[in-house]
């Protein structure tokens, strides 16, 4: 199998590429991987095994139709992760979101249509449904994006589904919740807090019960994407949940506890398969991927977040240069 991963030098795409090249996906031990990435502030070749014999790296823009005409043919599958994904970064009037997340997705789909390449998994986000509310949001929930980022992702995701219906292109969409794990850029919420705490910053002041998010470990997210790629339905949409909903204040207490100093309540987080609160912390309705494809979360939050903090503690050489360049 020859797999093209756009945005494969970013957080989720590089985890998917590393896992595939390491033989972590059954049946794909010999897969050849092409990573196409523009290496924006969020892309980093240090997240990839660049000298791996089955990895080809192409430095380029997913919005460039001539480049895609050269790169796309010859692949058996595409995982589309390239995106402007940082909702809080100062942007050029949101133009980057619109360009990469809509135009880039369209340019890729068009190349796949012309060259008959598929399946294509478009890695979208639960943010297309709008903020976490009272009801669990299933795949049939209308898109109600509330930021330029989520609106651009919703548009790209809907264009992808339109390509499935109009052109018969084999496209599948995943809508994952907030994702955490190693190699995530320091401007994202969990790494920002962890690297600050590890550098000696005081824990952030408790902010009350606000901005609840559902969290999934990157390894679970990528396994879900791979399941959708190998066993999903053409034209299908699959939510990917994590089973742990935390507001900012609770998350901050957990991270402060893990980074030393304040005793955190990480042990009391109830989540994961079979845990006492296994279903209490779901904001997304992810029953479809569980029922249809047999997906299960394998990384309990308490374990995954401790392992993530340990990774940042052990790899300052990876994140300190990013912190120095950060614009936030
Ligand atoms: P990321 O910002 O870490 O990585 C994005 C990658 O895309 C970077 O390597 C960047 O260089 C590359 N890129 C940006 N513009 C490009 C362009 N024009 N051409 C080619 N490459 C370009 O993002 P991530 O967290 O890995 O997210 C990957 C995908 O998953 C995104 O589509 C995002 O919307 C989605 N997603 C992310 C999360 C999350 O919490 N991180 C949750 C759900 C869905």
TrEMBL record:
Residues 131-150 are annotated as: Disordered. Its EC number is 4.2.1.46. It is an enzyme of class 4 (lyase). Residues 3-241 form the NAD-dependent epimerase/dehydratase domain. SUPFAM superfamilies: NAD(P)-binding Rossmann-fold domains. Keywords: Lyase. InterPro entries: Epimerase_deHydtase, NAD(P)-bd_dom_sf. GO terms for molecular function: dTDP-glucose 4,6-dehydratase activity. The keyword RNA-binding does not apply. The keyword Lyase applies. It comes from the Bacteria. Belongs to the NAD(P)-dependent epimerase/dehydratase family. This is dTDP-glucose 4,6-dehydratase. It comes from Nocardiopsis mangrovi. The lineage of its organism: Bacteria, Bacillati, Actinomycetota, Actinomycetes, Streptosporangiales.
